[in-house]
Each structure stands twice: as C-alpha cells, then as structure tokens.
Amino acid sequence: MTRRFEIDADSLPDLPGMMLATIEALRKLGSSATIHELDEEVISLEGVTEREQGYMMANNSGPRVNYYWSCRGLVPVSFEQCLL
Asked: Is residue 8, in this structure, part of any structural domain at all?
C-alpha cells in the first residue's frame, strides 16, 4: 500500500492524507478509540517510521506527528494544546 503522508523535520505533512488514514484507523477500531489507540493504529497502518515519530515540534512540545493529528482537527483535544 502507498503511504498517504510522511512526516519530516521541516515541512507540513499531507493533511488530507492524514485524515484519510485516521478514518481508516477508526473503521478498523470499530468507530471508537482513545487518542493513544488511534495514534498507534494510524502509525501501524501507514508504516510511520521511528525516525518520523521522533521529529519534535520547534518548541519541543511534542512529536510532530501527534501535533498534526490533534491541532488540525483530526482528533479532538483542547484548544489550548494547539496554541503551544
């Protein structure tokens, strides 16, 4: 299967690709999941590498991959987290 998105140290990932992967993961998980379960399933489905998972946000607030899921509306989190 072809990857729908990739994470690197500097550029934005393909957000529509991330959304499609998230929807597929939710379907596989029975339409309900914790944020951690969803993260793990998308990472597994897409083959997100350890290297990609290790890229941090510029302010070291967390991994880039988790930031893009939460702050772009792909998974619900508090608005304050998105302002970090």
From this structure: no
Distances in Å between the Cα of 1 and the Cα atoms of 4, 35, 39, 41, 45 are: 9, 24, 19, 15, 9
The answer to whether the pTM exceeds 0.70 is yes
Note whether residue 9 is domain-resident.
Answer: no
Q: Which two tokens stand for residue 38?
A: 């969803």
**Is 2 contained in some domain?**
no
Asked, for residue 57, whether it belongs to a domain, the answer is: yes
Q: Do 45 and 66 meet the contact criterion of CB atoms below 8 Å apart?
A: no
User: What pLDDT is stored for residue 3 in this prediction?
Assistant: 92
- Please give the pLDDT value at position 49: 94
How many domains is the chain built from? Answer: 1
